[in-house]
Write a structure and sequence with these properties.
Helix content is about 45%, strand content about 20%. By secondary structure, the protein is α/β, with parallel strands linked by helices. It has a domain at about 1-110 and about 295-360: P-loop containing nucleotide triphosphate hydrolases (Rossmann fold, 3-Layer(aba) Sandwich), CATH 3.40.50.300. The strands form three sheets. Strands 2-1-4-5-6-7 form a six-stranded antiparallel sheet, covered by helices on one side. Strands 8-12-13-3-14-15 form a six-stranded mixed sheet, sandwiched between helices. A three-stranded antiparallel sheet has the order 9-10-11. The two termini are about 25 Å apart.
Length: about 350
């Protein structure tokens, strides 16, 4: 889905925002605090049900307002969300109420590229696992179903471990088998997708970091040679002591290695940012190969990337057919790149929560 129209109400300081005839690239500029990033936040909220800046709805819903509303329209679909202060939400697709956020996520695949962040590399396995599962959700139709069943079984097993001081292996056997059944499915799906992803990753790595050798390796969170059921039985006493399930796909990771050692220990901050972009661009390329176009949010593009990196990133996103929403303090640099590459764009000035089309 490429967004043709966007309507936002009561997100942070944004007054009612109504944008029509959006382009492949949409550039929002203005002073700090003007509301630029809040436009991206609203799109992220619509696609994922959450903000990328806070987990608390009252922090992004305007003060004293009961809710926030985001609506978007493409040539084929109309999607909307009403988010309440309580965290509850109402979701509509083409006028019909739907039950889950996943239905919006399917229609609107969204990638946030934050040039300032190195969290995916520096902050443990969770953000890398989330990045992998975002791709899985969009390229493997059966992944979400298996993930839901696995998550429910894991929650029940952990609840049992917390509630009882002593549990025999036989008492945990039904949960072990359920975890194993769905965990092996998740592992098989992830392993197959990562093998495909490696091809796209190496291509984008060459574009952004041509002088570096970096491998992408999938770690399943258990010993795949012996199987998850075996590992659950072997870790029985440790799980009882810790009161949670130690092994399984919920502990999976993506390991990024160089010949000199792990990427997090070897690379500079600038190299880490480019590596994250290579990871995300290669995911977008993989979706593109599956005829799924991605909406991309680029926050504060010109703050951290040099002109060459900016140009490579913009050119690659255009090549992949992505619709891009960019915030910047330096719109003239971004315009220069877009003009040089003959990319259609719309320029918006953001000031005190209002968004207006600006002259190009």
């Amino acid at each position: 889905m490429h967004i043709a129209r966007l309507h936002v109400e009561r997100v942070r300081n944004l007054k009612t925002v109504a944008l029509a005839e959006l382009q492949p690239f949409n550039v929002f500029y203005g002073r700090n605090g003007s509301g630029k990033t809040s436009v991206l936040e609203a799109i992220h909220l619509l696609a994922t049900g959450r903000s990328f800046r806070t987990h608390i709805p009252k922090n992004y819903i305007q003060h004293d307002a009961p809710d926030a509303i985001v609506f978007a329209q493409s040539a084929a679909d109309k999607i909307g969300m009403q988010k309440m202060q309580s965290g509850e939400q109402l979701i509509k697709v083409n006028g019909d109420l739907v039950a889950t956020q996943g239905q919006l996520a399917k229609i609107l695949p969204l990638q946030l590229i934050d040039p300032q962040s190195t969290d995916i590399i520096d902050h443990g396995a969770k953000p890398r696992r989330q990045m992998l599962d975002w791709m899985m959700f969009h390229v493997e139709p059966e992944f979400y179903h298996a993930w839901q069943h696995y998550s429910r079984a894991l929650k029940q097993r952990n609840s049992l471990l917390k509630s009882r001081r002593s549990l025999s292996l036989a008492e945990l056997e039904p949960w072990n088998r359920m975890l194993s059944d769905y965990g092996e499915i998740l592992h098989s799906q992830r392993a197959g997708a990562v093998e495909q992803w490696k091809h796209y990753f190496q291509q984008d790595l060459q574009r952004l970091l041509p002088d570096l050798e970096i491998s992408l390796e999938y770690s399943p969170g258990f010993h795949s040679a012996t199987g998850l059921l075996h590992d659950l039985a072997a870790s029985h006493h440790k799980d009882l002591e810790r009161r949670y399930t130690e092994c399984g796909p919920h502990r999976a990771d993506l390991r990024l290695k160089t010949p000199q050692g792990p990427a997090d220990a070897v690379l500079s901050r600038g190299q880490k940012k480019l590596l994250i972009m290579a990871l995300k661009l290669s995911q977008i390329a993989m979706l593109h190969a599956c005829n799924k176009e991605t909406v991309v949010l680029l926050d504060d593009l010109t703050a951290e990337l040099d002109l060459t990196a900016q140009q490579r990133l913009i050119g690659r996103l255009s090549q992949l057919g992505s619709q891009v929403f960019i915030t910047t303090l330096d719109h003239e640099s971004v315009q220069h790149h877009l003009h040089e590459m003959s990319i259609a764009y719309q320029l918006f000035k953001v000031e005190n929560g209002t968004v207006q089309i600006a002259e190009q």
